[in-house]
Structures are given as C-alpha cells and as structure tokens.
Design a protein that fits this description.
Layout: H1 3-7, E1 10-14, H2 18-29, E2 45-47, E3 53-57, H3 63-68, E4 74-78, H4 79-88, E5 93-98, E6 104-111, H5 116-119, E7 125-130, H6 133-143, E8 146-151, H7 158-161, E9 167-172, H8 176-180, E10 183-192, E11 194-199, H9 200-205, H10 207-224
Parallel strand pairs: 1-3, 1-4, 7-8, 7-9
Antiparallel strand pairs: 2-3, 4-11, 5-11, 6-9, 6-10
Helix pairs in contact: 2-10
C-alpha cells in the first residue's frame, strides 16, 4: 500500500437491510456512531463519528469483492455470500470473527405435497432453482443426487409454482414467505450467519488501527450473543 492509502480512514463495506441494522450495535459498542441511514440517504460513502473509519454501502454479494481487492479494509457478509465468492475467488480473505448476526438457514424447499424423498433417491435427477449455485451443487453431490441447476436472482419461490424447477435452495428466516406461497422447507443445507472479513494486506499494513476494531467486534458480538 502507498503512504497515502495508509493515511486514509479505514473503510468498512456493508450492505443495506438486516446486516446494516444488526451491525450498528456492534459499532456503537466500539464507540462509533453512523449519522446517516443508507435507507434514506443517497450517499454510498458514509462518515462516522470516528475520523479513522468510514462506511461504504454496496450490494451484499459485492462486499467480499470490495474487501478482497482492497477497496475496503474490512466488511461484513453472510456465510452464504462468502461460500459463493470463495468458489470463484479462493483465498484472499481473512475471516476472524463469526458475528452471529443476521442468522438464518439455507434450505431446500418444494411445493407442498411434492414427494421430495422419492425425488432424491440415489441416482435420481432434480431441477433446482437457486442463487446459491455452489452450495446447492455440493449439497446434492454429497447426497448422490444429480441436479440441473437454474440460477435465479430473485422471486425464488415462484420457480416450483410455475414448473420451472422441482425445488429451490434459498435462505429461510421465519418461513413466512414459503408458507404464503404454499412451499415447505424439507432439508437444511447450512446454518447461516454474518462474518467479519478482512483484507489480508490491510491486516498487515494497518494493524494498529484495524486490530482494535476487530477485537471490539469480537467482544461486542460475544456480549450480544
């Protein structure tokens, strides 16, 4: 890193929504306040009460990319996003803390009444719609089930209803959306929570500023848990 980059504030990459909301108490425990809400502000770079820290607001799926390539020193991303990112970009990210926020499950879901057990017998073939292609591929490979994976980016619950897929692999929190669309979760793929991720070069060159924040996140996460 150049001397100029060492002088700039640390940059934390976050996404809007649940992760942002559940990160705020962790920042406050570190003595940091964010003056603006990304849901109402048009700014993508948010200052904080600390001159040594600024936030950037990016898509959840882009957080690991900003951190890995050094545009952000650290970030917070769900295990689901990190799993898919690692499949295409192995290495390059340090994950020191499971923050235990934004918890949910990655599940297989089907139409109510669909005989999933019969459909996944050894040697069968299944059409599965998902945004989480790598996780789904490995899950069904472990079961010995052949799958045709259809990548979607939203409205996942629609796929089984209109015959696009036999099943979906998607995040489930309360299960309310599945129930509203006459779907049921039939199998867990993974427990999901959000992790603190750190750029490895930043950890080496900016440790004096970065490590205290990492330690504070770890303590606050443990206390809130």
């Amino acid at each position: 890193m150049s001397p100029a980059s060492l002088e700039r504030p640390l940059t934390l990459a976050l996404s809007k929504g649940r992760i942002f909301d559940e990160t705020m108490p962790l920042l406050e425990a570190a003595g940091v306040r964010v003056a603006e809400n990304p849901e109402t502000s048009r700014k993508l770079i948010l200052p904080t009460s600390s001159p040594d820290l600024q936030l950037i607001i990016v898509r959840a799926s882009d957080v690991p990319t900003y951190v890995q390539y050094g545009a952000a020193d650290f970030g917070i991303a769900g295990k689901d996003v990190l799993y898919e990112h690692a499949a295409q970009h192995p290495g390059g990210l340090y994950q020191p803390v499971d923050l235990n926020i934004a918890r949910c499950r990655l599940c297989v879901a089907v139409r109510r009444g669909f005989d999933y057990e019969a459909a996944v017998r050894q040697g069968s073939r299944l059409r599965v719609a998902t945004k989480y292609v790598q996780a789904a591929r490995e899950h069904f490979a472990r079961k010995g089930v052949y799958v045709d994976l259809i990548k979607l980016y939203g409205s996942m619950e629609l796929a089984p209803l209109v015959g696009l897929a036999d099943a979906i692999v998607d995040l489930v929190s309360t299960g309310g959306t599945l129930k509203a669309n006459n779907l049921v979760a039939v199998e867990d793929v993974a427990e999901i929570s959000s992790r603190l991720i750190v750029n490895q070069a930043s950890l080496k060159t900016r440790a004096a500023k970065l490590q205290p924040l990492i330690d504070s996140f770890a303590r606050a996460s443990a206390a809130l848990g």
